[in-house]
Amino acid sequence: xxxxxxxxxxxxxxxxxxxxxxxxxxxxxxxxxxxxxxxxxxxxxxxxxxxxxxxxxxxxxxxxxxxxxxxxxxxxxxxxxxxxxxxxxxxxx
Length: 93
Hints:
It is a single chain. By secondary structure, the protein is mainly beta. It has one domain: Immunoglobulin-like. The protein is built from no helices and seven strands. The chain has strands at residues 2-3, 22-26, 33-39, 48-54, 59-65, 71-75, 84-89. It has a four-stranded mixed β-sheet with strand order 1-7-4-5, with no helix packed on it. The two termini are 25 Å apart.
């Protein structure tokens, strides 16, 4: 099972405020693979990552992602059964 915390930082007004970061996992929970659907809302070409943490805050997996795409298939069968946190790191945040 995955728990997905999402922190939204929306301080702008207008059309750009509609481009908020989003993240979902399908299926959730899973034991083998899950599709991560995301929108970082960044046009920056800096490194962007999807990071998986266990509940102790230990990083268990990190994958560079392409902001021009909107989904990746994440293999999770190598992780022990449990609850994990998924984070999208964009623009160094």
